[in-house]
Amino acid sequence: MPMIRALWQKRKSIVFTWLISYSAVLFVPIAISLVIYSQASHALKGEIHRANDALLKQMRYTIDNQVDLMKRLDMEITWNDKLQNLMYSNKPAKEAPFNAYQLVKEFRLYKTSYASIDEFYVVWDQGKAVLRPGNIRDLQTAFRTLHDTGGLSYEAWSAAVHGKEANRFAVLPHLGAGTSDTSIAYITRLPNDLSGRPTGSIVVMADASRFRQAIEGISNFSEGLLLILNKDNEILLSSRQDTPELKPFLDGGHVRLGDARIGDSELFYMPSAVSDLKYAIIVPSAVYWKKAEYVRSFASISILLSLVGAGMLTWFFTRRHYTPIHELMQSLTDRNAPPEKEDGNELRFIQRAILNARSEKERIAMQLQKHQHTLRSNMIHRLLKGRLETHVPYEEAFRSFHMSLPSNEFAVLLFVLENEESLHAKLPGIDLNEQAKLVPFIIGNVVEELALQHQHAGYVAEVDDMQACLVCLKPDASDARGEMQAIASDAQTFLRRYDMELTISVSGIHSSWAGIAAAYQEAVDAMEYKMVLGKQGIINYEDIRVSPADSAGSGYYYPLQVEQQLINFIKTGNFEQASAYMREITDRNFGGRVMPLNLARCLLFNLVGTMVKAINELGEGGSWENEPSWMDAVIDCGTIQEMQEALQALLRDVCAFAAEKRASNASLEREGSLRELSAEVARYIEAHYADANLNVNAIGERFDLKGSYLSRLFKNQTGEGLLDCIHKTRIGQAKAMIRAKRDSINEISRLVGYNDPATFIRVFKKYEGITPGKYKEIY
């Protein structure tokens, strides 16, 4: 009683299960022997039929798994969105190669996921090409690569893959398929597009050796002939060739499945559970009874052995087998976790532990795969930013990411996409996040591949909204700078085919890890020069680097009198003259060698300031002052060319405004007389500038007008007052005398009409920004 109670308490334990199982072994042979000896012939025949069914089921299970994988892969390819887009989209034909490239790239994932599929491809009718994992080939090349073993012509293969039947199995030769050189192919004909044009076919192949290995093992066991038939009962594969037992069942090229027994052979078949295939076995009748007698003798002996040995060994092996399971349970138990309610079955406990461990492993692997690219990009980002202090040496980090380092020489390429918005507009149907990932992915792959073609190692990461490529040069690179230029040029040319307009900057060559940050900074400095040199070009740091000697002689030209003259032209409303003068200023500054970037920015901002001064001096320009967006439009320009165009457009509007204002102040006749009067006044000032008594009132008396009124008329015509004109004329003459170096400053002040040298110095500094003495030192 206590023993029965203890066993009942452990009824869910594996020990209890084993005891019941081992005990059942003692009674099963007895039951089987009674059935065998009571119904010998009928039972043996039934057992043999069931054995044949089991063999066929085993064969069906093995081959159906392979066929199911082929059909599953066929289904995934059929409903692949990129394939649907390629076959049935109404997009422009020029996008088809890109879509095909994306599709064959995704086929690589299928190749990895379906390792037992030896080959698959898509016949693209409209492109007259075959799409394989990783490449695109024309039909002739694909046939020679895959099927040209001599057993099938190109025309026969073309007819097979372009047949009208939707789904079918066929035997195709396959190069590289081992000794058989054949494969069983599952061919799916895709529906025509909306215009009724043929689209293509999907071909999934598994080498015949995979099927033959499965059926040969079963055939050797049963001593029979195993066949794989298609839906028309044609033989796709057999375990042996040219066997005599097959001929009675043949009707032309088809196997008669209705006749179960012909002569000394019997045929059994079973349909596939996943396809229209059939599996058949032909077994000689003599094999039946030979095996039946062997089974009878073996059954009697096994019963006796079971009765003698089973009872003795049951308890011994139960104890022995349970010991490692108990130890395994102890090792799998988490001692720190809260205790769980046990159900008493050790195998279920082990299964749960293994499933939990596998789930955790898969989760960690997926997390690592997701973050590997981010970690690699972060490492490159740190290198470019000069952060060399790390817990793991960079050499070891590069090895962990499978990144090679051919040498200790580095360079950096920077890529800026100039037409990002318009490019995204050409990719409809793609999520914005996917678009943001796709473009950098394409640029990165292209640049890294081009670097590899030049035998360098290139690694791309996104840094500061730019794509940065860290290039580790090959050893002993003789023309490293030229090769960097070639990589940039090839990348720009290739990506322009896909409407990507890039500006690329190239750094110098640096050694060691510390030099990478310097190379990156050089590339950034070079990229900033696109403001001067324009977008969509290649800017090499060595070309724009300014030495101290060059910087000392860099020509910045925009003196005060030039600015005042430009303002005067603007105020007179003469757009042609003002525009030509502004172009003369910019050409003088940018027409020679590359101006330092800071001076270029300074000049452009000064030109914007000149426009502001001109607008303010026009007066009554409230519309300009209340809407400063024009200034933002000029300052926000990305390049000098764009800023010049914006300044010219603004200059046209301001001159039109000035001209309109002048036209509203006087009639055309008055304007002509005033211009003549202004010219006479200017000539009078030129002739009498040395007169110390020359002033506004004296000039007014000369022309029988009030001095202040004459000065106002003169300013309306020329943009400057009489007093300013007198001073500028005198200062201009004084500058010429100073450059001649003949007289002293005091003498020159007297000669140009100033009795007081202090007054002359003050006026000179007002208009020229420096004193006469300083001017004399310069010239």
Concise summary:
This is Helix-turn-helix domain-containing protein. The protein contains 31 helices and 19 strands.
Question: Can you offer a commentary on this structure?
Answer:
This protein is of the alpha+beta class. It folds into four domains: 52-285, 2-Layer Sandwich (Beta-Lactamase), CATH 3.30.450.20; 370-545, Reverse transcriptase/Diguanylate cyclase domain (Alpha-Beta Plaits, 2-Layer Sandwich), CATH 3.30.70.270; 551-665, no CATH class; 668-778, Homeodomain-like (Arc Repressor Mutant, subunit A, Orthogonal Bundle). Helices cover 60% and strands 13% of the residues. It contains 31 helices and 19 strands. Strands 3-2-1-6-5-4 form a six-stranded antiparallel β-sheet, with helices on both faces. Helix 2 runs antiparallel to helix 9 and helix 19 (560-572) crosses helix 24. The radius of gyration is 47 Å and the shape is elongated. The protein starts with a helix and ends with a helix.
Which architecture name of the largest domain does CATH use? 2-Layer Sandwich
Shape descriptor reads elongated
**Range of strand content:** 5-15%
The N- and C-terminal alpha carbons lie at a distance of: 127 Å
Report the biggest beta sheet as strand number plus sense, adding barrel if it closes.
6 strands, antiparallel
Helical content, roughly?
A: 55-70%
Number of domains: 4
Mean of pLDDT: 78
Structural class: alpha+beta
Quaternary state of this entry equals single chain
Q: Please name the CATH topology of the largest domain.
A: Beta-Lactamase
Number of helical stretches of at least 4 residues: 31
Number of strands: 19
- Low-pLDDT windows of residues: 548-553
The CATH class of the largest domain: Alpha Beta
CATH superfamily of the largest domain: PAS domain
Rg for CA atoms: 47 Å
Strand arrangement in the largest pleated sheet: 3-2-1-6-5-4
GO molecular function, one term: sequence-specific DNA binding
Transmembrane segments: 15-37, 298-317
Domain HTH araC/xylS-type: 679-778
Keywords: DNA-binding, Membrane, Transcription, Transcription regulation, Transmembrane, Transmembrane helix
